[in-house]
Amino acid sequence: MQKYILHWGEMGTRWGVNRTVAQIHALLYLSPEPLAAEEIAETLSVARSNVSTSIKELQSWGLIRASQVLGDRRDHFESLKDLWQMFNIIIEERKRREIDPTLSMLRNCELEASVDKETPEEIKQRITDVLEFMETISSWYEQMHKLPKPTLLKLLKLGSKITGLLGKKD
Questions:
Q1: Per the CB 3.0–4.6 Å rule, which of 55, 84, 95, 109 could disulfide with 99?
Q2: Residue ranges of the chain whose pLDDT lies below 50
């Protein structure tokens, strides 16, 4: 459990997530019972204030929720346990926080560049290329997001075999 939590914290930093946030998520995911913030702080040897901030971040993503334990007035916290649900939430939040603003910015850049006589055509084309790429990725995500879980699993398991269905073209 300790090795898992430490590694998850390390991976979190590589994904742009605060180490403590990632470790708390890992701890709550593994924990069979909801944990109070004090228990989290003690288990991970981190400051209680850091735990509070991290819990708020995880709640803003919708990855953990507060729950009550009979006989204890404190809030306890538990993670979602369904990996697909967590994956979908993380992907949707990253899209909303990262991809959507980038698409908006690229659309504005393309519009501004189209009327700017000083912007070289090569630069305008590069901006358009990035916008089209990002829109394609976003559209693909929207389509995959709508698929039922069993269909998506089958698609993922097909992997590169799907090229046989499409016909190999480079």
A1: 95
A2: none
